[in-house]
Each structure stands twice: as C-alpha cells, then as structure tokens.
Amino acid sequence: MAAPRTERLLNLVICLLAATRYVSKDQIRRGVPQYGECATTEAFERMFERDKDDLRDMGIPLETGTNEAFFDDEIGYRIPKDAYALPEITFDSEELAILGLAARTWQQATMSGAASQALRKLEAAGVDVDREALGVIEPRVDAAEPAFGPLLRALQQRSRVTFEYSRAGAAPEPRSLEPWGLASWNGRWYVAGHDLDRKDTRVFRLSRITSEVKVVGRKGAYEVPPDTDVTALIHMLAQPAPTSTARLRVRSGRALPLVRRGTVVSRDDEWTSVDLPFEDVHQLASHVSGFGSAVVVDSPESVRSAVVARLAGALDAVKEGA
Amino acid sequence: MNGGGAVGQLGRLLALIPWLLTRPGVSVAEAAAEFDVTEEQLRADLELAFMCGLPGHLPDDLIDVSLEGDRIVVTNADTIARPLRFAPDEAVALLVGLRALSDLPTPAGNDALDRVLAKLERAAGDAADTHRNVTVKIQSAVDADAAARDAIGKALGDGRRIRLEYYVPARDEVTVRDVDPVRLLLVEGHGYVEGWCHLAEDWRLFRLDRVQSVNVLDTPVDAHESPADRETAFDAEAATWRVRLMLEPRAAWLLEAFPCEAVQREPDLVVDMPVGDLGWARQLLLQLGGSARPLEPPELIDAVRAEAEAALAAYPDR
Fold first, then answer.
1. Would you give the DSSP letter of residue A190?
2. Residues A233, A193: contact at Cβ < 8 Å?
3. Are A130 and A100 in contact, with CB atoms under 8 Å apart?
4. Nearest-CA residue of chain A relative to B82?
5. Which of A168, A223, A241, B33 is the most buried (most CB within 10 A)?
C-alpha cells in the first residue's frame, strides 16, 4: 500500500516547507508522526534517507545546512519555498491557446502523462490553459520505441547505458553508450552519444535496439559536451557529407525532389540539367532509378552503370515472372 | 507522474491540492478527469491529504478537506498552496512537445509559441536542462517553401480556399487543385495540411514540402463535415490496389518499412501490400532493381516493364 508512505512523505514536505530555519533530524522525527512510530533510530534513519532521495528525484529542492545557533555537527534540512514553488507565470490568450496544444502533442503515454502533469501545475498556479483553441492544429508526436523512456531517463541523469543493437540485417551486438541526446527525424527516434567501446561519437536508431536499455553505474557519470546539436549529428552520421557530384538530365516538371536538392545548370523545353551532390553511389542510383525515364544520368560512369543495372534488374524480374 | 506508488501519489497531491485551492467547490468527477484517475482514487487522495499537515498535527495544523455531496473544498493548506515546480521529465515533455510545433505554419504565427517557450523555460529553471538535447525535427515542414507555409497558415486562420500546386510523388507530376483547408497535422514525423480537395472530391493530406505554391483565394471554404481522426498519414482504406511481391532476402526490409503482410515465407518471401497508386509501386520496384518481383496485379507488371524499357532506351550504348 502506497498510502502510509505517501502520508509520511507529504508530512515531511509540509514540515520542511513550513520551516524558516534548518530542521534537525530529531525535530523531523518528532514532527512527522509516521517517523515517531519507528522502533529504533537506525530504522528511522534508513527510512529518512530513502525519503530524501525520493523527494529529490521528484525535483523537490531539499537543502542541507546548519543554523548558526546549532552546534557544529548538527545538520538540518529545509525546503526553501521560492525554490520549491512554480514561479509566478502569466500568459496572454494567444499563449494560452498554444499551451492547450501541448496537452495533445505526445502520443506516447509517459510523455503525455508528464506534459499533462506540467499543465495541471500551471493550472494549479492559476493559469487558464485553453484546451479548445487551435483545433486547426493536430500534432501527434510519438515515441513508440521501448528504448525511448530508459534513454531519456539516462540522459537526464547522465548515466551510462548498455543495450544490444542490430544494424540492418546484422546480428545484435552489445553497445555501451553515454547518451548525449535524442532526436526524432522523419518520425524515427535516434540517440546520439559517446560510444564507450568505439571511443567515438555514434548515432543509433531506437527501433534497432533489440534488448532492454540497462543503466550501468552512477548518476552524473559524464558531461554532455556543451552545444551538442543532436539533429546535426544525426544528419552528419546518418547522411555523410557528399563527396562527389552527378550530372543528371531531368524531364521538365518531373523528379522535383531531385531537382530541389541539386543545382540547375541549364534548362530547355524538354530537359533540365542538374548537378547533384552525393555520397553513396547505390543510394543515388536507387533514388534516380525510381523516376524511370524522367531522369538520365550523364556522369559519372559509376552512377550511370549503377542505374542501368537497377533498371535492367527490374526489367529482368518482370520478364522472368511472365 | 500518475503511476502508482507513493512518489506518484505524492506528485499528484502536490499538484492536486493547489489546483483544488484555486477551484473551491469543484466536483469529484471533474477533478478525477483532470488528473486522469478514477473517482475512487481521487477520494483516496483527499482522505490522505486530510490526515496531513504541519508538525504537531493538532486539528488546526491539518489540511481541511470538506466533501459536500460531490463538491470539494480544501482549506488550511497554505504551505503547499503553490504547485511544485516542474520535474525534469515534465519540463522536457512540455518544452520538446511545443518546440516540435515551431516549424508548422500556425495561424497565430510563431511569435506566441516562442514567447510560451521562453516563459516555460524560465519557470522550469534547472529542470529544463536537458530539453535542448531532445528534439523533434519535422523535416518536411523545415523544407517547405516559406511563402507557401505562411499562406497556408493564413488561409486556415481566415477560413479561405487555397489553390495548390502540389507535387504528387506517386505520379511524379505537379497537379493544380483547389482545397478547403481544415487543419494542420503533424503525424509520423511529417507536417501536412488536410483539406477537402475539390479535384478528388474527398479529404486529402498534402505534405508541406510537396506544396510548390499556394494561392489564397477570395472564396471562403465550404462547410464540410469534419474529416475522421487520423493515426497515420497512410490511409489503408483508400488503398485501391493490392500488390503482391516476391522478395529476395536483401529486399526483406520492405516488410518492416511498409504496411504489408507476408503471405508466404518459404521457399521465397511473398508479401501483399495495400497501395493507393500503382505509380508508387512502380517506382519502388525500379528502385529495388530486381530484388523484388511483382506477381500481381498485371497492370503493375506491365507498368514496370514499359518504364524500365523506356528508361533504358536513354542508354543506347548498353
């Protein structure tokens, strides 16, 4: 049953919040009835230690210190009201409507629960969140990958993690990581961080984590380098910088995603010539082949032959099936 | 923070008591709905609060909860009258969720969103530490044409019809259509405007980065019944084709990447895939270069053959 413990914790919070000076352990033991029921001092101290940790994990600023009047070794506790309470905060009607959106953004249960709790705290502070406004926006941000929750907690606590990771088609391997950040890009979640085995920065796709994410070691085990831009890291590592350029001919009005990524070098009624930077021949060949006769590769030869091979392969496959 | 356990319950109480203090006489049902718990749980929370208070625990020290019928009035809870500041997970959920919207064209413009983010970040203090290390990037909204994005936001706000030049990837062509926009959607990592399409005479989603241009017309939008809720951008019910493919092992990733169903695993993997437009399936098969063979429908087989032959004709030296 949670209730007796909740009662004790709530009494402890009230006791420490109400105090204007540091409260000694003895005073706490006398002031919170549930501690008074402890048979021994050891039992009380164990219980109190655990309670302190729980309050701090909840974000309650429980301070330790001594009052001048105390003897040197007498340590006391308090929760400063200013640090405890949500600061005064007000919003105009436009802003209240935006806050209403926050209530319906997360699809994932834990994040949605946390966002709702935050909004309730605002409402408890007198903010009138407008949940009905901005019905024209329907944001759905999901984080269905089971690894998301544990990785977010590890990131917040700066704890190292281990997990099994399976690259496309390969067998799972154990990895060990200091998470620096999480990012959703085109609907998929990635974690970036320092890979302790590879001794380098790495990015992992959460959907390819095949085991539980285990926290190893203590909190605050590392620092995230300042100005870490996780999205940029993912871009860089998932899509390496282009090293070559292909010259393509694109039929007018077609294959716009290719044209948009490249530079137009010339244009007539029928064709647009485009220079397209690329890194991976096969990735580009796959992209180009999909557009069929709308795109012709002029150079380089490697891309030209890779596209021809794909088209010929697709043609052979339908002929064999016939 | 609504989980069970003492910490979950305490977290709820530290928000619930201040919430009730600002709403004297609120009903049990309303409070339970707001805090996403059963009425039974909410009553248990209140009973517990009633047992708590300042050291000494004389009657005057305790939180006073009176339940008159269904109405709750809380008094004598000055110590915890202000809600506890955001916990780190709450700050992250709120700030990351809102930041995800910053690339969408909102009718109010993005100034209000920026102001909200700044205020929340200040209020959260240290709890907001990690939020910049968690990002939801809506690439299709970032890549969208800025003028088109603004025009969509404005048309939505004003309830006006828009003329879209829209690139349809499945057909690899730009179409022009009049659309009555109803809402912006953020789903599966992409930004869309949803509206009644006068060309298709049905609800359609338009991905923001595929909108080539937007012309806001003087015509107000027609009154339509609202479109159904969408969990995903892919509308399986609107998929008119069922495509059957035989996959080589190196193309087996299709099973994971697209909504499809394995109908045979040995000796070869065969999958059925609902497809809205055969043009899309044709592109996919050309991309795969023979690692997937179309078995059905015959229209798809013919389309792949014709397009591959036409494309190869541009390389006469082969």
1. E
2. no
3. yes
4. A85
5. B33
Helices (H), chain A: 3-18, 25-31, 33-36, 41-57, 81-84, 93-102, 109-124, 148-157, 230-238, 256-261, 281-290, 301-321
Question: Which residues of A fall within a CB distance of 8 Å from B120?
Answer: 89
Q: Does B33 touch chain A (CB under 8 A)?
A: no
Crossing angle of helices B298-312 and A301-321, in 10° steps, is 150
To the nearest whole angstrom, how far is the Cα of A255 from the nearest Cα of chain B? 6
**Distance, CA of A202 to chain centre:** 15
Residues 137-196 of B with CB under 8 A from A: 137, 139-140, 156-157, 167, 169, 172-174, 182-190
Token digits of residue B205? 């989603």
Of A10, A183, A314, Cβ closest to residue B135:
A183
Distance CA A145, CA A162 (A): 16
Instruction: Output the DSSP codes for B87-121.
Output: PHHHHHHHHHHHHGGGGS--TT-SHHHHHHHHHHH
Beta strands in chain B (DSSP E): 26-27, 64-68, 71-75, 134-137, 160-168, 173-187, 190-197, 202-207, 211-220, 241-247, 261-264, 269-275, 292-296
Handedness of CA B71, B77, B83, B88 (dihedral sign): negative
| C-alpha to C-alpha distance for A158 and B89, rounded to whole angstroms | 14
Residue pair A263/A248 in contact (Cβ under 8 Å)? The answer is no
Query: Residue B46, class by beta-carbon neighbours within 10 Å (0-12 exposed, 13-18 middle, 19+ buried)?
Result: buried
Query: Would you report the helix, strand and coil content of chain A in percent, each value rounded to 5?
Result: 40, 25, 35
The 3-state DSSP composition of chain B as helix, strand, coil percent (nearest 5) reads: 40, 30, 30
- Whole-Å CA distances, B44 to A4, A6, A9, A47: 12, 11, 16, 24
pLDDT tens digit at each of 318 positions of chain B: 344 688 889 999 999 999 999 999 999 999 999 999 999 999 999 999 888 888 777 777 888 888 888 899 998 888 899 999 998 889 999 999 999 888 887 766 678 899 999 999 999 988 888 888 898 888 888 888 888 988 998 898 899 999 999 999 988 999 999 999 998 888 888 999 999 999 988 899 999 999 999 999 999 999 888 777 777 777 666 678 899 999 998 888 888 788 888 898 888 999 999 998 899 999 999 999 999 999 999 999 999 999 999 999 999 887
β-strand partners of A266: A273
Q: Which residue of B has its CA nearest to A23?
A: B55
Q: Per the CB < 8 Å rule, is B289 touching A152? A: no
Cβ contact A79:B97 at 8 Å: no
Helices (H), A187-292: 230-238, 256-261, 281-290
Return the residue matching tokens 């099973």.
Answer: B255
Structure tokens at A157: 């606590």
**Which pTM value belongs to this model?**
0.83
The CA distances from residue B138 to A188, A204, A231, B33, in Å, are 11, 19, 11, 32
Q: Which of B97, B87, B94, B140 is nearest to A143 (CA)?
A: B97
A6 in reach of chain B (CB within 8 A): yes
Chain B interface disruption, residue of A34, A137, A234, most B CBs within 10 A:
A137
B272 alpha carbon, distance to own chain's centre? 27
Element containing residue B33 per DSSP (H, E): helix B28-34
Element at A272 (helix H, strand E): strand A271-278
